[in-house]
Design goal:
alpha+beta; five-stranded mixed β-sheet; five-stranded antiparallel β-sheet; 16 helices
């Protein structure tokens, strides 16, 4: 725990003061505010959810009771007819003709149901019987009439004595408009099981829907049967439309079931957010007051503290950042008597004293720097002056030897190529040159050497197009070409080649100068490689291959010391020099 606290303190020390204030505000004010308000909102919503759940439970139970009462009234009527001996005898009786049936029917209705006729008129029911002597109409009808209907097929399929069934009757369309029906079906086989008799009671579907609407529940209630909406207090109550699929299970806040007489029904109450939002609006003033008290007021105080504390520290920090090499800038308009104000005044005193010391020391330092720069410039000029005689001597010697030995008129052409080289040596206005021009000088030099050595020397210069515009120090390639000719080819009796290859690999510019000349032993090669890698002004004063050291030194100066030198070869077989320069260290000509 101590280690954790220590690391936390170290991390906080790296934060700016302004950030620390914001952390303090977030952790000690805003975070507790969020937690507190979240708890309050949770309590409100939880209370509302419980209240809403209880309300939905009451609504569902009320609908369940009301619908169950309607169904039980139909079932009570069905049971009464089921056990009524005279009604069953009337259906079983064989009638001679229509007159006898009509007379018997009127007498039966008059004497049997005279006391309940008002009640029975409010309930639509029909008794279907397998008796051909009965005339269709009134309370009785032949069963053959309904054998193709959906309700009859379903009832026979279930084999149940009683059944509650929902049906959309479109069999008589277009003569009769299709309509929804809610039916209670009772098998009348109490006295006689040989003759088929069925009671069909149609409940008042439209009346039940009206009753649900009149209850004025604040939420939508759907009574579903086989996944379809059969009853509702909302928009799915049209008696002339087919039952629609119920797609509101995800929005259902409360659900209960009714399993009555073979009909498994779901009573779904859709959750409404209106009451919850109303509760939030009801408590909105209290919530806004808490937000104002716990968030806005501390934010205002934080702003004042920021101006008094962090702003002045920021001024002090910016002053230190803007210190230049010549003098320290004082802080104007120092305000406050606290620790920050005293620190700003102390800084002004320190700046005054240091500025006076700078005036004394600065002039001496400038003189010292000027002397250093002058010395470096002198060394660079000396470096330049060492190159010209060195090349000029070797080139003139080549021309002289060719003229003495061959006695040919081609000397003029050699002198022309010498002029190309000489212009390069003399013009030191700029020490940098494009690779394309540098390789032209290398070709001119190799051409002159070809005159000298004849068939003993062959050469090839290959430069990738993408490398031609890079800029390198003058005579970089020519120096190593000269070294290959003089120390490689000239010292070998047999013919030899000089290869110049310049290409780009990955992010490096690669210069390769290879000869198949005399080569050198391993010790001498290691010594030369060391000089190339550690080229300096001091090494130029030593004897040996000054031109190679000179070229390597200028490459190191131009690339900030990032040029890489490699040397490989074998005595009697030749030598290869490879120089790798990061492309980011080089410029390109426009």
């Amino acid at each position: 725990m101590k280690n954790i606290l220590h690391k936390l303190e170290e991390r906080l020390d790296n934060y700016k003061i302004k950030k620390k204030f914001y952390l303090l505000y977030i952790i000690c004010v805003l975070f507790p505010l969020i937690i507190t308000d979240s708890i309050i909102v949770y309590i409100i919503f939880r209370s509302e959810r419980i209240s809403m759940y209880n309300e939905m439970d009451n609504m569902a139970n009320a609908v369940k009771y009301s619908l169950g009462n309607q169904i039980e009234q139909a079932a009570k009527l069905g049971k009464s007819i089921y056990m009524d001996r005279e009604t069953n005898d009337f259906m079983d009786r064989e009638y001679k003709d229509s007159y006898e049936y009509v007379t018997s029917y009127q007498e039966f209705i008059k004497h049997r149901w005279s006391g309940n006729i008002a009640i029975l008129d409010n309930i639509k029911f029909t008794m279907y019987v397998d008796n051909n002597t009965i005339i269709n109409g009134g309370r009785f009808s032949r069963i053959e009439k309904e054998m193709d209907s959906q309700w009859y097929t379903f009832f026979k399929k279930t084999g149940m004595p009683q059944l509650l069934y929902f049906d959309y009757d479109a069999t008589k369309w277009p003569a009769v408009e299709p309509k929804r029906r809610m039916m209670f079906i009772q098998n009348l086989d109490f006295y006689d099981k040989q003759r088929e008799k069925i009671l069909l009671i149609e409940l008042d579907y439209a009346g039940i829907n009206r009753y649900l609407k009149q209850m004025s529940y604040p939420m939508d209630i759907f009574i579903c049967y086989n996944g379809k909406i059969v009853l509702s207090n909302g928009k799915y109550t049209s008696i002339g439309r087919e039952f629609e699929e119920f797609s509101g299970y995800s929005k259902t806040g409360y659900k209960t079931v009714m399993d009555v007489y073979g009909a498994y029904m779901e009573i779904c109450v859709i959750n409404s957010q209106a009451n919850t939002l109303a509760e939030v609006r009801k408590n909105l003033p209290a919530i806004l007051f808490l937000v104002l008290l716990n968030a806005v007021f501390p934010a205002i105080m934080l702003r004042f503290l920021n101006k008094s504390f962090t702003v002045r520290l920021g001024i002090l920090s910016d002053t230190f950042k803007n210190i230049n090499d010549e003098s320290l800038i004082g802080i104007e308009n120092v305000r406050g008597e606290d620790e920050i104000g005293n620190l700003m005044r102390s800084y002004n005193k320190m700046a005054t004293r240091i500025n006076s010391l700078i005036q004394i020391v600065y002039k001496n330092k400038i003189k010292e720097q000027e002397m250093t720069v002058a010395r470096q410039e002198a060394e660079l000029l000396a470096l330049h002056s060492q190159i010209n005689p060195h090349f000029l001597f070797n080139t003139l010697e080549s021309i002289r030897m060719h003229s003495v030995l061959k006695k040919e008129t081609e000397t003029a052409d050699m002198i022309e190529k010498l002029a190309v080289l000489q212009r390069q040596y003399v013009d030191w206005g700029d020490d940098l040159i494009e690779i394309e021009k540098e390789t032209e000088f290398a070709r001119a030099y190799l051409s002159i050497q070809k005159y000298r050595f004849g068939s003993k020397l062959s050469y090839a210069v290959n430069v990738d197009n993408e490398c031609k515009k890079y800029i390198i120090p003058k005579l970089t390639v020519v120096t190593f070409v000269e070294n290959a000719c003089v120390h490689g080819i000239e010292s070998k009796a047999s013919p030899g080649w000089v290869f110049v290859r310049i290409y780009k690999k990955d992010s490096y510019l690669c210069l390769e100068i290879e000869d198949t000349g005399k080569g050198m032993d391993e010790a001498l090669m290691e010594k030369l490689l060391w000089k190339m890698r550690n080229a300096s002004i001091g090494l130029l004063h030593e004897k040996g291959r000054v031109g190679v050291v000179n070229a390597c030194l200028r490459l190191k100066m131009e690339t900030g010391g990032e040029a890489v030198f490699e040397l490989d070869g074998e005595e009697g077989m030749g030598l290869i020099v490879q120089i790798k320069i990061p492309c980011r260290c080089l410029k390109c000509a426009d």
